[in-house]
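Page 37, continued from 36.
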């Protein structure tokens, strides 16, 4: 390999090592821990939880059943069932609704997780058919749901819509979209992998959000820092049927106590902190804007301009490998991690990254963010392939 050949694998190894050595981290989830470190962390986080002296779970009883009850209580639903993955939970939920409505067509956004990241599992495994209310990179509107040209049995709404920039509708828009589905005699399912951080944007609690839908899926490792796992919540009859399908799909795992314990710890530790993360994400986003403007970036995009949750996208007119090198080398030399991995966009020379504001970012002031982000950008040479702007004149045009 020559010095001019970009090696993503080597860059990833450097990024992980630099992040592990960092004393300050602005963005990320901390998934780089070793097995031993994660075991020690789990023991420390769960030391005060009740029921540790009871036997481990077997096929979903014990600590798993306790977690299910906790989720149902938090969401205000009749019941909840633990699933090893969200992919399985959502397939089961929508398969159950298809049987009950008599319609196997699901309306969802083309950027939603089942369309982007599940290898066509809806159709290949569960026999479901998908229609798209819109192809715009935003949540669908009530008018678009009403205007679908064919019947559909269920409307699935991803809250927030991650691949569009962690976007959420307003509370009023969400209510109207749900009502539009009801007018079409369809049930409503919330793809709530990151539902936990939505109350700040909507201005209502989790039970009020969940009450709009017929079923809700939530994740335990996104937002809550768990190991793995998900829950499907809704009416007791639906959850009972979902448990049967969970077994058929191979999800009735013999023991799941590590994931359940980590989820319970995350609900205790992270759920109360999420509003502070969401609030601080707005501070971080504004500080990054200031850094980009003062650094002479030809143009940039914050998506959304004001974060809806504690996560948002940053788009810059540089190749991903140049941004990765600048970010990693800065972390190696200063023990300060600002950005995670950069992803190339379809437009040559334009890249984006996802910023996740968590506990490690709360100690960062706006000045800290401006200084560190500006220092990363200064590492990119002028000839590193700046794009022509991709259609935007400058940063101010995007805000």
């Amino acid at each position: 390999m020559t010095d001019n050949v970009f090696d993503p694998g080597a860059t990833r190894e450097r990024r992980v090592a630099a992040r592990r050595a960092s004393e300050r981290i602005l963005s990320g989830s901390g998934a780089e821990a070793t097995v031993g470190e994660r075991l020690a962390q789990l023991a420390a986080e769960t030391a005060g939880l009740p029921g540790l002296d009871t036997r481990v779970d077997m096929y979903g009883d014990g600590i798993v059943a306790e977690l299910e009850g906790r989720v149902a209580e938090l969401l205000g639903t009749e019941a909840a069932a633990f699933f090893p993955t969200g992919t399985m939970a959502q397939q089961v939920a929508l398969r159950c609704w298809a049987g009950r409505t008599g319609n196997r067509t699901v309306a969802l956004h083309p950027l939603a997780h089942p369309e982007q990241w599940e290898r066509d599992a809806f159709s290949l495994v569960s026999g479901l058919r998908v229609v798209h209310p819109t192809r715009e990179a935003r949540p669908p509107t009530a008018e678009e749901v009403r205007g679908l040209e064919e019947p559909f049995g269920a409307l699935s709404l991803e809250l927030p819509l991650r691949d569009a920039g962690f976007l959420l509708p307003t509370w009023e828009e969400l209510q109207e979209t749900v009502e539009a589905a009801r007018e079409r005699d369809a049930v409503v399912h919330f793809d709530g992998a990151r539902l936990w951080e939505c109350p700040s944007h909507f201005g209502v609690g989790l039970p009020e959000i969940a009450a709009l839908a017929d079923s809700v899926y939530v994740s335990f490792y996104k937002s809550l820092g768990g190991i793995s796992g998900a829950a499907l919540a809704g009416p007791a009859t639906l959850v009972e049927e979902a448990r049967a399908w969970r077994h058929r799909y191979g999800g009735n795992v013999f023991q799941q106590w590590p994931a359940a314990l980590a989820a319970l710890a995350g609900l205790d530790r992270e759920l109360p902190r999420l509003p502070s993360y969401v609030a601080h994400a707005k501070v971080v986003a504004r500080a990054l804007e200031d850094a980009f403007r003062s650094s002479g970036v030809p143009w940039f995009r914050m998506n959304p301009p004001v974060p809806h949750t504690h996560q948002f996208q940053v788009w810059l007119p540089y190749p991903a490998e140049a941004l990765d090198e600048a970010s990693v080398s800065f972390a190696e030399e200063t023990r300060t991690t600002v950005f995670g991995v950069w992803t190339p966009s379809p437009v040559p020379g334009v890249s984006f990254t996802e910023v996740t504001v968590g506990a490690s970012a709360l100690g960062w002031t706006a000045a800290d963010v401006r200084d560190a982000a500006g220092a990363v950008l200064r590492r990119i040479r002028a000839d590193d392939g700046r794009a022509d702007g991709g259609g935007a004149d400058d940063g101010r045009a995007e805000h």
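Residues 317 and 350 are 4 Å apart (CA to CA). Flag for discussion at group meeting. The longest strand covers residues 187-192.
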